[in-house]
Amino acid sequence: MSWLDDVKWGDQGLVPAIAQEISSGDVLMLAYMNRDALMQTAASGEAVYWSRSRQRLWRKGEESGHIQKVHELRLDCDNDVVLLKVTQMGHDPGIACHTGRHACFFKLYQDGAWKTVDPVLKDPAKIYVSSQ
Fold it and tell me: Which fold is adopted by the domain 3-94?
């Protein structure tokens, strides 16, 4: 039995994967992994996810250069969520979100509405120049 068999894969063969910055503890993003993504992540030490929109493996930073160096892979108590403890590379502070922000969780529920509370660190148009 492979260590990958310990993971409870969802109906589509995916498991949620949370990227957490190892130095600050900030939750950077949530993505999904299939078996190949998790295997490649463990082998390479860099985060690889399954892109549901592109329907293919997606190496974090392949377009932006904002690679996630993986220090630890953890599995939750129910075996159905993976936690990656990472260093977010490519910018200081690291940019994990495609909006040019440090993390994808930049909206705060306050007074009955979602408010943007974290700044854009780099204009996405300047990050994704090669893909436009």
Answer: Ubiquitin-like (UB roll) (3.10.20)
